[in-house]
Design a protein that fits this description.
4-stranded antiparallel sheet, alpha+beta, 6-stranded mixed sheet, 454 residues
Length: 454
């Protein structure tokens, strides 16, 4: 058996070539013009999974983008790990803010810089390279199945139906996911909870055409002004969401859990400095770490309308739009919340405009028990790779399919993510630390060893 550290060192150049071949494919699920790129990326993943040692890999159709399924069965009586990842990425705009081409990966300052470097091509690659090492050295003692989808960044609209149809194919004892983050490079952590999500687009229509603001301003309702007023009513002065009944299913944190969160090393000044803000805001009565992980939130993700090009144009616009979202906590049903939001916006909309709210995607929150054998195996893997026991933390992001896996497949998920906040996922200059990439492979290898023995 070749020492894992030496194996990584000797094969890293080829690993980077293979990872970069995935990154070069702009698999942007949000843009229809990249439909062919989704298929190309799926094909490339198929090649890499087969090279890594999978017995079979199939590209399977779904209602949307293709799904990659692969497996390595070492013993029908052994436990089975289902590895989930996604091969789609977020759009790269605004392109002018990137220091290098987002789809031509570069290594600078011991980091990989590219769209998908972390989310989720880089993290998925950790899983595959760990699997490859185990297979090549005859160390794999449990069965491994892979399911890689191409619609996670748009809410995984096709995956639930796929899981319902292929339950037998996806049968497993635990699901393993690397698509989350750690508290810091020197603060390894395992994600034990995720928030849910509900997302909408609001369209406000006023006059039947854009109007001259001098002739009509002050007499006709401006859709942008009105939209801003509607949005402003969703949060009160204490940062609480004003939708009637919104907090009915929100589980309040126990004092024990609040104490555990308070014990997490967290430097608020560094946090503010890292994102370039003077002060923080949020729901009154909760700490920053509680607000961004265990409490619901409401945000405007985009807003537009009227004239936005160079120069000036005195126009009272006909329409205004916004994309808005709520992060939800476990027990909040995203469909119930979605309808609550639609009803509330309709109730506060003035009759001077027409308001249309269109639900987009969403999903439930998730909690992973830290007593699971697979969680303990992940904990051991992190401890060996990073030299210290990982903290158990809830995170504020959402992976809607995780709760669906539990509901449809009846299987829990261990969230073994290696990202950092500084990786700038979904933003310009996304990056991923090579040091963490290497340690991630070690952690996943050790997970499989420990889980097989558990």
């Amino acid at each position: 058996m070749k020492d894992l550290t030496i194996y990584i060192q000797e094969n890293e150049a080829q690993m980077m070539d293979d990872l970069f071949s995935l990154i070069r494919i702009p698999s942007i699920s949000a843009k229809p013009e990249h439909k062919d790129d989704m298929s190309k990326c799926a094909e490339r993943w198929k090649e890499l999974l087969l090279e890594a040692g999978a017995d079979e890999v199939t590209i399977m159709p779904s209602a949307g983008n293709p799904i990659i399924y692969g497996q390595k069965m070492v013993d029908p009586d052994a436990k089975t790990v289902l590895v989930y990842a996604h091969y789609d990425v977020m759009p790269a705009e605004p392109l002018e803010l990137w220091k290098s081409d987002p789809f031509q990966a570069e290594i600078r300052d011991e980091h990989i810089w590219a769209r998908g470097a972390d989310d989720d091509k880089g993290q998925a690659f950790i899983q595959v390279k760990a699997f490859e090492y185990l297979v090549k050295n005859n160390l794999l003692k449990n069965n491994v199945r892979f399911i890689f989808e191409g619609e996670e960044e748009i809410g995984s609209p096709s995956l639930e139906a796929f899981c319902q149809k292929h339950k037998d194919l996806l049968k497993s004892d635990i699901i393993l996911v690397s698509d989350t983050s750690m508290l810091g490079a020197d603060l390894p952590s395992l994600t034990t909870g995720l928030r849910g999500l509900a997302y909408w687009e609001i369209e406000v229509t006023g006059p039947n055409r854009d109007l001259h603001s001098g002739h009509f301003g002050g007499a006709v309702a401006n859709p942008i002004n009105t939209l801003c007023g509607i949005i402003d009513k969703v949060l009160d002065k204490d940062g609480r969401i004003t939708i009637p009944g919104f907090y009915e299913d929100v589980e309040e944190l126990s004092q024990e859990e609040r104490d555990m969160i308070a014990s997490i090393p967290f430097d608020e000044e560094k946090y503010k400095a890292a994102i370039g803000v003077k002060n923080l805001s949020g729901e009154k009565g909760y700490s920053t770490l509680e607000r961004n992980s265990c409490r619901p939130s409401f945000d405007v993700c985009g807003i537009w309308g009227g004239y936005t090009s160079e120069g000036s144009k005195t126009v009272l616009p006909s329409k205004a739009y916004a994309k808005v979202s709520c992060r939800l906590v476990p027990h909040q049903n995203h469909l119930k919340i979605s309808q609550m939001f639609i009803d509330y916006i309709s109730s506060i909309a003035p009759d001077t405009v027409e308001v249309k709210v269109t639900p987009m995607h969403g999903g439930e929150g998730y909690v992973c028990p830290i007593t699971l054998p697979a969680y303990k195996a992940a904990e051991k893997g992190f401890e060996i790779a990073f030299g210290k026991k990982p903290l158990a933390v809830r995170r504020g992001g959402s992976i809607p399919i995780i709760s669906t896996f539990e509901e449809v497949l009846g299987v829990k998920t261990v969230l073994m993510g290696f990202g950092l906040e500084s990786d700038a996922i979904h933003s310009p200059n996304e990056n991923f630390s090579l040091d963490i990439f290497r340690k991630g492979i070690v952690a996943v290898v050790e997970f499989h060893k420990a889980y097989a023995e558990a």
